[in-house]
Amino acid sequence: MPIHLRAEPGDYAPNVLCPGDPVRAQYIAENFFDSGFRQVNSERGMLGFTGTFEGRPISVQATGMGCPSAGIVFEELIMLGVTRLVRVGTCGGLGDGMAMGDTVIAVAASSDDTTPLRYAAMEGFAPSATFTLAETAARLSRAGDTPVHVGPIVTSGIFYDPDPGTFARWKRLGHLGVEMEASMMYTIAAVKGIEALAIMTVSDLLGESGDTERISDAELKAGVDQMMQLSCAVATS
Ligand code: HPA
After folding, report:
1. Which residues contact 35 (CB under 8 A, 6 or more apart)?
2. Nearest in space to 121 (alpha carbons), one of 175, 174, 190, 169
3. What does pTM read for this prediction?
4. 15-235 has which CATH code?
5. How many Å lie between the centroid of ligand 1 and the Cα of residue 86?
6. Which one of 199, 204, 227 would you pick to mutate in the ligand 1 pocket, going by the greatest count of ligand atoms within 8 A of its CB?
7. What angle do CA 116, 118, 123 make, to 5 degrees?
8. Which of 51, 84, 134, 161 has the fewest CB atoms within 10 Å, counting from its CB?
9. 204-219 tens-digit pLDDT
10. Domain map of the chain by residue range?
C-alpha cells in the first residue's frame, strides 16, 4: 500500500481521471459514473473513487495543485497498476479566439517548472500526450457543441506569477493554455511507459499584459460538464 493512496492493487481501474480538486473528483463520480461506485482513497483529503462509465471500469483520483503534489499521486497510481492517466481540469486560455468554457486538448505540455525536467533527468525534453488518446479526444469532440482547441500548453509552477510578461512569451510560442500538472503527468507517463492525456476547460482568459478575466461559476459548470463527458469517453475508449 503506497503512502498517500491508501489502496491495494486492483482498487483502481486501469484508466483513471485525474482532477486537481478533490471536490471535483467526488462530483465526477456522483454525476458521471454509473451508480454503485466506491471510495478508494481519502488520505489527506485526496479523494479517489472507482466505478464504471457506461459499463466500463473507470476511476477518478484527485491530484492536488502543482507538479510535486500531482507527481506523488501519478507515481502511486502507477504502483497500483494504472496504465492510463487522463488529467481533467481547468486552464487559463492563451489562444486567440478562445472563449471561457471552451475545451483544450493538450498534445504537449512545456515545463515552466523544474520538477518534470528533474524527473526526466534530461536538460531538454518534450512532455507529450499519447497520440492515440489525443486523436480519439479530437474525433469525439467533433460530435459535441463546445469549441475544442488542440495544441501545446504550458505547465507552470507559479499561479501568481510576478512577471507580467510570462503569458505573452508562451503565447508567442503557440501555447494555448496554462495549468499546473500536465507536464508532470506526461513526463512520468513517458518514464513509466503508460498512456496520458490532459483535457481542460478554459476557466479564465489571460491577457498579454498579465490581466485575467475569470469565468462565472455557472459558465464553469457547463464547460466542465461538457469536458467531463468527453473525458470519460476518452478514458474508457
Ligand atoms: N494559471 C495556472 N493554472 C491555471 C490557471 C492559470 O491562470 N487557470 C486555471 N488553472
Report:
1. none
2. 190
3. 0.97
4. 3.40.50.1580
5. 18
6. 204
7. 95
8. 161
9. 999 877 788 888 999 9
10. 15-235
Task: Tell how far the Cα of 89 is from the centroid of ligand 1, in angstroms.
Answer: 10
**Which residues are CB-neighbours of 122 under 8 A, at least 6 positions away?**
none
- First CA to last CA distance, the chain: 28
Residue 77 has pLDDT above 90, yes or no: yes
Note if 204 is an active site residue. Answer: yes
Distance of alpha carbon 68 from alpha carbon 89, whole angstroms = 17
Tell the residue number behind the cell numbers 504502483, with chain if given.
79
How far is it, in rounded angstroms, from Cα 39 to Cα 46?
A: 11
Which amino acid type is present at position 214? R
The cell numbers describing 34, all together, are: 454509473
pLDDT digits (tens, 9 = 90+) for 100-135: 999 999 999 999 999 999 999 999 999 999 999 999
